Amino acid sequence: MRLSIGTSVMIDKDFTKTGDKYKSKIVDFSDGFVLIDYPTHIDTGKTAFFMDGTQLLISFVENKMSYAFRSEVAGRVNRGIPMLKLAYPGDDQLIKIQRREFVRVETAIDVAVASEGVFQQFVAEDISAGGIALNIGQDDPFEGTDFVSLTIALPYVNDDIKYIRTEAKAVRVWEKDDRRIASLEFSEINPTDRQNIIRFCFERQLLARNEL
Questions:
Q1: Long-range contacts at 28-33 (CB < 8 A, ≥ 24 apart)
Q2: Could you tell me which residue, 97 or 187, shows the higher pLDDT?
Q3: How far apart are CA 200 and CA 206, in angstroms?
Q4: Which of 7, 51, 166, 173 is the most exposed place for a label (fewest CB within 10 A)?
């Protein structure tokens, strides 16, 4: 098992509107489960009390490589100290989190683009936490513009939709299967929005592996 007793873990509650993050560490193991200290909020230090069945995104670092897996709260255990019992899918189900280059996933999501007072609607080719590629048809709507404003609709599997608003710059226009694609790089995006995109990409990876 890549996880070991004492491993520090970061915890995201799936689909939270506030982007709250928590930290904890591995205390013990049982068959198909890991036991952790009660998580504390990264910013406030307050102890979190998750209900059974709460969906979580767990990430950790092992040998300088970051990994993530989906889990859920399976109960509570007290072996001298109170612990939270989390489902562990196994090492073969871990997804590596690329740090130097954000994971990019193909997805046809709606994107509204505002440039010099003109609004246009496009469908994405793919997205990562660093940028997005749009199907633009035969024209180049970004020619001669430095930055544009994007509104990106991210649909999650629980039917929640988050709207990401950010500035972006077109870095290149290219062709794929007789379609013109514009690649845009995010220039101003707040950390919570970036984390929501990372979570969306992670979810799409799980869908591609038929795990959701």
A1: 28/77, 28/79, 28/83, 29/1, 29/3, 29/5, 29/88, 30/85, 32/87, 32/88, 33/74, 33/85, 33/86, 33/87, 33/88
A2: 187
A3: 10
A4: 51
Question: Domains plus CATH for the chain?
Answer: 8-97 (2.30.110.10), 105-208 (2.40.10.220)
**Contact in structure between 28 and 5 (CB atoms under 8 Å):** yes
Q: Measuring CA to CA, which residue among 25, 98, 105 is closest to residue 58?
A: 25
Q: What is the C-alpha separation between 2 and 28, in angstroms, rounded?
A: 13
Asked if residues 149 and 199 have their Cβ atoms less than 8 Å apart, the reply is: no
Q: Provide the pLDDT confidence category of residue 6 given band limits of 50, 70 and 90.
A: very high
Extract the tokens encoding 79. 């072996």
How many CB atoms within 10 Å of residue 3?
19
Placement of tokens 């979570």 in the chain: 199
Tens-place pLDDT, residues 56-100: 888 888 876 778 888 999 999 988 889 999 999 998 888 876 554
H helix runs in the chain, sequence order: 191-208
CA distance to 25, 29, 122, 141, 177, per residue, from 53 (Å):
20, 19, 37, 46, 44
Side chain identity at residue 210, one-letter code:
N
